[in-house]
Amino acid sequence: MKYNEIGKTGMYVSNLSFGASSLGGVFHEADEARSMEAVFAAVENGINFIDVSPYYGHYKAETVLGKALKEIPRNKYYLSTKVGRYGENGVNIWNYSGKCATESVYKSMERLNVDYIDLINVHDIEFADLHQVIHETLPALVELRNKGIVKHVGITDLQLENLKWVVEHSASGTVESILNFCHYSLNDEKLNDYLDYFESKNIGIINASPLSMGLLSQRGVPEWHPAPEALVKACQKAVQHCMSKNYPIEKLAIQYSTGNPRIATTLFSSANPDNVLKNIAYAEEPADRNLVREVQEIIGKQMRVSWANS
């Protein structure tokens, strides 16, 4: 396992890290005991960064993770959670007020059985008024940072443009890390275009979803996946190509996404301890660079054909 610093936070984290969304049954129903075993497997085998949110499973992921963390020494992991997105009785809720953010941190600590949070994030800022994030949400979190309740402050979003905009318009040192997903994977390298900017601001970069929410998997995408049909088909061709080489695309995807030292860590999620161990083993081997090139060429060619025919 390799370890990289998140920006200038002093947190040196494993280049592959554990996302706890699966513990909330986000993708499919998860067994609580097996979910806890997945957390133990991750920490016992070198993963030291865990990310969660009250939104995942509408507080279930934090609750299950908290039960596991009660049995793990606090110095064995860095813990990240979020504010802004929630849920109640099956209904999604968004609230980016400073008051709600502050209350949310304390409630998360109760569910997680900890007395401080290493990294607190404003969750999916695309759903927020970005001005409110800058002038209300982030200042509330900075106040908690000043009190030592949280150690570091970050923001998350799918849209890299939003992340950059908030950083540009916030006071220097407010945002210490960004978390972005699906933009540093075999089929999408958009994050590369923003590395220089975030590094120039001493902001750490966290990547998530190396399998592009199922695009780069033998299982395939869930029904709700937002990818256009052309991209789904292109990735399916890449999956088949890897199968013909007896090299699972999941393995290649994990290796590719964890192989860039400019990205502090890449999050994956699983409630299955066997999958956790498998992904850790994948990350400890270098990627087959020839196969990376072949897969990217297959996806690119298929997308160009689709664009030409549209």
TrEMBL record:
Organism domain of life: Bacteria
Occurrences of domain NADP-dependent oxidoreductase (ranges): 16-298
One GO cellular component term: cytosol
Record-linked InterPro entries: AKR (IPR020471), LGALDH-like (IPR044479), NAD(P)_OxRdtase_dom_sf (IPR036812), NADP_OxRdtase_dom (IPR023210)
Molecular functions (GO terms): L-galactose dehydrogenase activity
Protein name: NADP-dependent oxidoreductase domain-containing protein
The species this protein was found in: Phocaeicola massiliensis B84634 = Timone 84634 = DSM 17679 = JCM 13223
Lineage: Bacteria, Pseudomonadati, Bacteroidota, Bacteroidia, Bacteroidales
